[in-house]
Amino acid sequence: MYIVMFGAPGSGKGTAAKILAKRTNLPHISTGDMFREQIKNQTELGKLADSYISKGNLVPDEVTINIVGDRLSWNDAKNGIILDGFPRTLAQAQALDKILEGLGQKVDIVPEIKIPNEVIVERILNRATCSNKECGAIYNTKFKKPKVAGICDICGSTLMTRTDDNAETIKSRLKVYEDNSKDLKEYYEKKGVLLPICPEDPTAENASEQVVEKILRCPLCKKR
Ligand code: AMP
Questions:
Q1: What distance in Å separates the CA atoms of residue 48 and residue 24, rounded to the nearest whole number?
Q2: What are 173-199's pLDDT values in tens digits?
Q3: Which residues does 221 contact at the CB level (< 8 Å), separation at least 6?
């Protein structure tokens, strides 16, 4: 099953994608994580990506489509994947369809997590992520606190704050999302795969678990 998690930055799609990956045994592919790994390793791609990410802008389509195309050719992506943060533009969505067509596959479901902007800003400004790449658990120092401040409950690694999670870049990241989301939503709506989800209480500790339950209960998810 090919799942595209869709929603504004800070909507909780990353956390939901991680839970969903465990429940379905499908690989979780986050373009943001892929770029952050390249930045950490100071590769040419990382340096290029950082010049966009640090300003809250999108990395160019051709670069992003290339890395996703490559990742989708791996063996573990044969039975499906959970994409998180991709596609973010119509051109990326069209490119994804082409790549999947080449693999004899298609996007099955696009859960769209809808959260008010005020909550998004609060979430992003208080987000803390586990520094252990294998774990990557996401916390919120207000809504979903770790048991010990600064330490991951799951693996004991230190928690870190993303450099692009600041008041300055949030504005541009939300604007970029608003500019692109209409076209993307229309695109997936026409294909009949969009599943809008409005969490009852997006600040609840188990908000992401509830989102995942809704996705798994959707008939689009049971087609295969
Ligand atoms: P995320 O972790 O999904 O919030 O992504 C962090 C940043 O990486 C974004 O603000 C973009 O600058 C960049 N990025 C991630 N995914 C994409 C994408 N599909 N297209 C372009 N830029 C992306």
A1: 34
A2: 999 999 999 999 999 999 999 999 999
A3: 1, 3, 108, 109, 215
Q: Which residue has the tokens 């969505």?
A: 93
Active site residues: 13, 88, 127, 162, 173
Burial category of 23 from C-beta neighbours within 10 Å (exposed 0-12, middle 13-18, buried 19 and up): middle
The tens digit of pLDDT for each residue in 86-144 reads 999 999 999 999 999 999 999 999 999 999 988 999 889 999 999 998 898 999 998 88
Say whether the peptide bond before residue 87 is cis (omega within 30 degrees of 0): yes
Top mutation candidate among 28, 31, 45, 94 for ligand 1, by most atoms within 8 Å of CB: 31
Q: What is the residue with the minimal CA distance to atom 2 of ligand 1?
A: 32
CATH of 2-115+180-222, one of 3.40.50.10490, 3.40.50.360, 3.40.50.300, 3.30.160.20: 3.40.50.300
pLDDT band at 204 (very low <50, low <70, confident <90, very high): confident
The closest-lying atom of ligand 1 relative to the alpha carbon of residue 88 is 19
For every residue of 58-70, DSSP letters joined together read PPPHHHHHHHHHH
Q: Whose CA is nearest to atom 8 of ligand 1?
A: 32
CA 92 – CA 95 distance, rounded (Å): 5
List the one residue out of 99, 96, 97, 76 whose CA is nearest residue 86: 96
